[in-house]
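In response to the reviewer comment on reproducibility (Comment 2.3), we provide here a single inverse folding case reported in full, input and output, so that an independent group could reproduce the run without further information from us. The C-alpha coordinates appear first.
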Protein backbone atom coordinates (compact mmCIF):
# COMPACT_ATOMS: atom_id res chain seq x y z
CA UNK A 1 0.00 0.00 0.00
CA UNK A 2 1.34 3.41 -0.92
CA UNK A 3 1.17 6.27 1.55
CA UNK A 4 -0.71 9.34 0.41
CA UNK A 5 2.27 11.65 0.69
CA UNK A 6 3.87 12.25 -2.69
CA UNK A 7 6.37 14.88 -3.79
CA UNK A 8 6.27 15.85 -7.45
CA UNK A 9 8.75 18.27 -8.99
CA UNK A 10 8.11 19.51 -12.52
CA UNK A 11 10.77 20.62 -14.95
CA UNK A 12 10.89 24.31 -15.70
CA UNK A 13 8.53 24.98 -18.54
CA UNK A 14 8.29 27.60 -21.22
CA UNK A 15 5.88 30.50 -21.32
CA UNK A 16 2.93 30.24 -19.00
CA UNK A 17 -0.50 31.75 -18.94
CA UNK A 18 -0.39 34.91 -16.85
CA UNK A 19 -2.11 34.34 -13.53
CA UNK A 20 -2.89 36.56 -10.60
CA UNK A 21 -0.37 36.15 -7.76
CA UNK A 22 -1.51 33.98 -4.90
CA UNK A 23 -2.33 35.86 -1.72
CA UNK A 24 -0.41 35.47 1.52
CA UNK A 25 -2.43 33.08 3.69
CA UNK A 26 -0.81 34.50 6.82
CA UNK A 27 1.60 32.85 9.24
CA UNK A 28 -0.45 29.66 9.58
CA UNK A 29 1.13 26.70 11.32
CA UNK A 30 4.18 24.73 10.33
CA UNK A 31 2.43 21.41 10.87
CA UNK A 32 -0.53 22.30 8.67
CA UNK A 33 -0.63 22.84 4.91
CA UNK A 34 3.08 23.54 4.66
CA UNK A 35 4.47 20.62 6.57
CA UNK A 36 8.01 19.57 5.84
CA UNK A 37 8.25 18.42 2.22
CA UNK A 38 4.55 17.69 1.93
CA UNK A 39 2.52 16.95 -1.15
CA UNK A 40 3.22 18.53 -4.51
CA UNK A 41 0.39 20.95 -3.92
CA UNK A 42 1.71 21.87 -0.52
CA UNK A 43 -1.35 20.40 1.19
CA UNK A 44 0.10 17.26 2.72
CA UNK A 45 1.03 16.88 6.36
CA UNK A 46 4.15 15.13 7.56
CA UNK A 47 5.15 14.76 11.16
CA UNK A 48 8.54 16.08 12.11
CA UNK A 49 11.46 13.93 13.08
CA UNK A 50 11.84 15.36 16.54
CA UNK A 51 14.97 17.19 15.46
CA UNK A 52 13.38 20.56 16.12
CA UNK A 53 13.26 22.32 19.48
CA UNK A 54 11.44 21.01 22.52
CA UNK A 55 7.65 21.10 22.43
CA UNK A 56 7.44 23.50 25.39
CA UNK A 57 9.89 26.10 24.09
CA UNK A 58 10.90 27.77 20.86
CA UNK A 59 14.56 27.84 19.91
CA UNK A 60 14.96 29.33 16.45
CA UNK A 61 18.71 28.74 16.20
CA UNK A 62 19.78 25.85 14.01
CA UNK A 63 19.72 24.65 10.42
CA UNK A 64 16.88 25.32 7.99
CA UNK A 65 16.12 23.20 4.92
CA UNK A 66 13.36 24.74 2.80
CA UNK A 67 11.56 23.87 -0.43
CA UNK A 68 9.87 26.41 -2.69
CA UNK A 69 8.33 26.76 -6.15
CA UNK A 70 9.88 28.69 -9.02
CA UNK A 71 9.96 28.69 -12.82
CA UNK A 72 7.51 25.85 -13.21
CA UNK A 73 8.98 23.52 -10.59
CA UNK A 74 6.37 22.85 -7.94
CA UNK A 75 8.01 22.72 -4.49
CA UNK A 76 11.13 21.91 -6.41
CA UNK A 77 13.98 24.11 -5.21
CA UNK A 78 16.07 24.12 -2.05
CA UNK A 79 16.96 27.01 0.24
CA UNK A 80 19.36 26.13 3.06
CA UNK A 81 20.57 28.47 5.79
CA UNK A 82 21.83 28.50 9.37
CA UNK A 83 20.55 30.78 12.11
CA UNK A 84 22.58 31.77 15.17
CA UNK A 85 21.23 34.63 17.22
CA UNK A 86 20.48 37.51 14.88
CA UNK A 87 22.74 36.13 12.14
CA UNK A 88 21.29 34.12 9.25
CA UNK A 89 23.77 32.59 6.81
CA UNK A 90 22.81 31.06 3.48
CA UNK A 91 24.98 27.93 3.24
CA UNK A 92 24.36 27.10 -0.43
CA UNK A 93 23.78 29.40 -3.40
CA UNK A 94 20.08 29.79 -4.25
CA UNK A 95 20.49 30.55 -7.94
CA UNK A 96 16.78 30.79 -8.71
CA UNK A 97 16.55 33.61 -6.17
CA UNK A 98 19.79 35.26 -7.22
CA UNK A 99 21.27 34.67 -3.77
CA UNK A 100 24.86 33.69 -3.08
CA UNK A 101 25.98 31.86 0.05
CA UNK A 102 26.45 34.40 2.81
CA UNK A 103 24.51 36.57 5.28
CA UNK A 104 20.78 37.27 5.02
CA UNK A 105 18.79 39.93 6.84
CA UNK A 106 16.58 38.32 9.48
CA UNK A 107 14.03 39.41 12.06
CA UNK A 108 13.21 36.90 14.79
CA UNK A 109 9.91 36.54 16.62
CA UNK A 110 10.48 33.93 19.36
CA UNK A 111 7.06 34.56 20.91
CA UNK A 112 5.41 33.33 17.70
CA UNK A 113 8.24 30.87 16.93
CA UNK A 114 8.62 32.70 13.63
CA UNK A 115 11.16 34.64 11.60
CA UNK A 116 11.32 36.74 8.45
CA UNK A 117 14.17 36.83 5.94
CA UNK A 118 14.56 39.69 3.48
CA UNK A 119 16.86 40.45 0.55
CA UNK A 120 17.05 42.70 -2.50
CA UNK A 121 18.59 41.81 -5.85
CA UNK A 122 18.02 42.16 -9.58
CA UNK A 123 16.76 38.59 -9.99
CA UNK A 124 13.72 38.65 -7.71
CA UNK A 125 13.57 42.29 -6.63
CA UNK A 126 12.38 42.62 -3.05
CA UNK A 127 12.34 39.17 -1.45
CA UNK A 128 10.59 38.34 1.82
CA UNK A 129 10.31 34.90 3.39
CA UNK A 130 8.05 34.50 6.43
CA UNK A 131 8.52 31.25 8.33
CA UNK A 132 6.80 29.61 11.28
CA UNK A 133 8.49 26.73 13.11
CA UNK A 134 6.56 24.03 14.95
CA UNK A 135 8.60 23.69 18.18
CA UNK A 136 7.32 20.16 18.72
CA UNK A 137 8.82 18.62 15.60
CA UNK A 138 10.71 21.25 13.62
CA UNK A 139 8.24 21.32 10.71
CA UNK A 140 8.26 24.65 8.86
CA UNK A 141 5.49 26.45 7.04
CA UNK A 142 5.69 29.85 5.42
CA UNK A 143 5.21 32.21 2.54
CA UNK A 144 7.65 33.76 0.08
CA UNK A 145 7.03 36.92 -1.94
CA UNK A 146 9.06 38.36 -4.82
CA UNK A 147 8.45 41.60 -6.68
CA UNK A 148 10.12 40.17 -9.82
CA UNK A 149 9.30 36.66 -11.09
CA UNK A 150 8.96 34.72 -14.34
CA UNK A 151 5.21 34.51 -13.72
CA UNK A 152 2.78 36.29 -11.43
CA UNK A 153 2.15 32.96 -9.73
CA UNK A 154 5.74 32.90 -8.50
CA UNK A 155 5.39 36.30 -6.84
CA UNK A 156 3.66 34.66 -3.89
CA UNK A 157 4.30 30.99 -3.08
CA UNK A 158 4.20 28.63 -0.13
CA UNK A 159 7.47 27.47 1.37
CA UNK A 160 7.87 24.30 3.41
CA UNK A 161 10.69 22.51 5.16
CA UNK A 162 12.41 21.33 8.30
CA UNK A 163 14.27 23.02 11.19
CA UNK A 164 17.11 21.02 12.70
CA UNK A 165 19.04 21.56 15.91
CA UNK A 166 22.41 20.10 15.00
CA UNK A 167 22.69 17.75 12.04
CA UNK A 168 19.44 16.43 10.52
CA UNK A 169 18.24 13.36 12.37
CA UNK A 170 15.85 10.62 11.40
CA UNK A 171 13.68 8.32 13.46
CA UNK A 172 14.28 5.70 10.78
CA UNK A 173 16.99 3.28 11.87
CA UNK A 174 17.09 2.05 8.26
CA UNK A 175 18.16 5.41 6.85
CA UNK A 176 21.76 6.65 6.60
CA UNK A 177 21.61 10.20 5.18
CA UNK A 178 24.17 11.17 2.57
CA UNK A 179 25.06 11.32 -1.11
CA UNK A 180 24.37 8.16 -3.10
CA UNK A 181 25.13 7.00 -6.61
CA UNK A 182 22.36 5.01 -8.32
CA UNK A 183 23.29 3.07 -11.45
CA UNK A 184 21.55 0.46 -13.59
CA UNK A 185 23.53 -2.78 -13.29
CA UNK A 186 25.84 -3.47 -16.26
CA UNK A 187 24.08 -6.81 -16.75
CA UNK A 188 20.89 -5.03 -17.89
CA UNK A 189 19.59 -5.83 -21.36
CA UNK A 190 18.70 -2.79 -23.42
CA UNK A 191 16.45 -2.58 -26.49
CA UNK A 192 15.35 0.19 -28.82
CA UNK A 193 12.18 1.80 -27.47
CA UNK A 194 10.75 1.77 -31.00
CA UNK A 195 10.36 -1.85 -32.06
CA UNK A 196 10.42 -0.74 -35.72
CA UNK A 197 13.75 1.05 -35.28
CA UNK A 198 16.71 -1.27 -35.88
CA UNK A 199 19.35 1.06 -34.42
CA UNK A 200 21.39 -0.72 -31.79
CA UNK A 201 21.47 -0.19 -28.03
CA UNK A 202 24.85 -1.85 -27.58
CA UNK A 203 26.43 1.56 -27.04
CA UNK A 204 24.51 2.24 -23.83
CA UNK A 205 27.11 2.91 -21.16
CA UNK A 206 26.68 3.63 -17.48
CA UNK A 207 23.17 4.83 -16.76
CA UNK A 208 22.40 6.47 -13.44
CA UNK A 209 22.52 9.59 -11.35
CA UNK A 210 23.69 10.99 -8.03
CA UNK A 211 21.14 11.80 -5.34
CA UNK A 212 21.01 13.30 -1.87
CA UNK A 213 19.11 11.26 0.70
CA UNK A 214 18.04 13.12 3.82
CA UNK A 215 15.33 12.88 6.48
CA UNK A 216 12.43 15.29 6.15
CA UNK A 217 10.24 14.64 9.14
CA UNK A 218 9.76 10.92 9.66
CA UNK A 219 10.33 10.05 5.99
CA UNK A 220 13.34 10.20 3.66
CA UNK A 221 13.57 12.69 0.84
CA UNK A 222 15.55 11.91 -2.32
CA UNK A 223 16.62 14.60 -4.78
CA UNK A 224 18.94 14.55 -7.77
CA UNK A 225 22.23 16.46 -7.46
CA UNK A 226 25.31 17.07 -9.59
CA UNK A 227 27.84 14.24 -9.71
CA UNK A 228 30.67 16.21 -8.08
CA UNK A 229 31.05 18.24 -4.87
CA UNK A 230 29.44 20.43 -3.62
CA UNK A 231 26.60 18.32 -5.06
CA UNK A 232 24.41 21.23 -6.13
CA UNK A 233 20.75 20.55 -6.85
CA UNK A 234 20.08 19.44 -10.40
CA UNK A 235 17.39 20.25 -12.96
CA UNK A 236 15.68 16.88 -13.01
CA UNK A 237 12.01 16.08 -12.60
CA UNK A 238 11.51 13.68 -9.73
CA UNK A 239 8.61 12.01 -7.99
CA UNK A 240 8.91 10.12 -4.72
CA UNK A 241 6.21 7.90 -3.24
CA UNK A 242 6.40 6.00 0.02
CA UNK A 243 5.21 2.41 0.28
CA UNK A 244 4.76 0.03 3.21
CA UNK A 245 7.90 -0.27 5.25
CA UNK A 246 7.61 2.80 7.46
CA UNK A 247 9.58 4.94 5.04
CA UNK A 248 12.30 2.34 4.49
CA UNK A 249 10.98 1.42 1.05
CA UNK A 250 10.31 4.03 -1.62
CA UNK A 251 9.38 4.39 -5.25
CA UNK A 252 11.41 7.18 -6.83
CA UNK A 253 11.21 8.29 -10.45
CA UNK A 254 13.69 10.67 -12.08
CA UNK A 255 13.21 12.21 -15.51
CA UNK A 256 15.41 14.45 -17.65
CA UNK A 257 15.74 15.00 -21.38
CA UNK A 258 18.16 12.10 -21.74
CA UNK A 259 17.22 9.82 -18.84
CA UNK A 260 14.18 8.28 -17.20
CA UNK A 261 14.75 6.08 -14.16
CA UNK A 262 11.79 4.55 -12.33
CA UNK A 263 13.19 2.90 -9.21
CA UNK A 264 12.18 0.80 -6.23
CA UNK A 265 14.62 1.38 -3.36
CA UNK A 266 14.89 -0.30 0.05
CA UNK A 267 16.97 1.28 2.82
CA UNK A 268 18.53 -0.98 5.45
CA UNK A 269 21.31 0.99 7.12
CA UNK A 270 24.50 0.70 5.11
CA UNK A 271 22.81 -1.79 2.80
CA UNK A 272 20.69 -0.08 0.14
CA UNK A 273 19.21 -2.17 -2.64
CA UNK A 274 16.87 -1.55 -5.52
CA UNK A 275 15.66 -2.28 -8.99
CA UNK A 276 14.53 -0.27 -11.99
CA UNK A 277 10.94 -0.95 -12.92
CA UNK A 278 12.03 0.75 -16.12
CA UNK A 279 14.90 2.87 -17.37
CA UNK A 280 15.30 4.85 -20.58
CA UNK A 281 18.60 6.19 -21.90
CA UNK A 282 18.90 8.45 -24.92
CA UNK A 283 21.53 7.69 -27.56
CA UNK A 284 22.90 10.66 -29.47
CA UNK A 285 24.89 9.97 -32.63
CA UNK A 286 26.14 12.32 -35.33
CA UNK A 287 25.97 10.98 -38.85
CA UNK A 288 26.07 12.10 -42.47
CA UNK A 289 22.37 12.88 -42.33
CA UNK A 290 22.79 14.93 -39.17
CA UNK A 291 22.24 14.21 -35.51
CA UNK A 292 20.50 10.96 -34.68
CA UNK A 293 18.52 10.37 -31.49
CA UNK A 294 16.85 7.24 -30.20
CA UNK A 295 15.86 5.82 -26.85
CA UNK A 296 16.97 2.53 -25.33
CA UNK A 297 14.93 0.90 -22.58
CA UNK A 298 15.32 -1.84 -20.00
CA UNK A 299 12.84 -3.20 -17.48
CA UNK A 300 13.30 -4.96 -14.15
CA UNK A 301 17.06 -4.41 -14.08
CA UNK A 302 18.82 -4.47 -10.70
CA UNK A 303 20.36 -1.25 -9.41
CA UNK A 304 23.80 -0.73 -7.96
CA UNK A 305 23.44 1.79 -5.13
CA UNK A 306 26.51 3.04 -3.28
CA UNK A 307 26.98 5.76 -0.70
CA UNK A 308 29.57 8.37 -1.63
CA UNK A 309 32.15 8.66 1.23
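Designed residues, in position order:
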Amino acid sequence: MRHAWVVVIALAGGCKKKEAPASDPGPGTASGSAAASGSAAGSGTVAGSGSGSAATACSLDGKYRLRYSSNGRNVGWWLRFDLAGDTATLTVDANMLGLKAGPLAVVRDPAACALTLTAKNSTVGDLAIKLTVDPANGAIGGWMTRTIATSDTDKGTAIIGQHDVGEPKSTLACLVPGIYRIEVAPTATWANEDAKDDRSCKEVGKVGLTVRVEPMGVLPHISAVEDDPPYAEKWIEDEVAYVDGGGCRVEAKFTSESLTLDTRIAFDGDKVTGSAASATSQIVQDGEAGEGLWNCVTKGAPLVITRVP
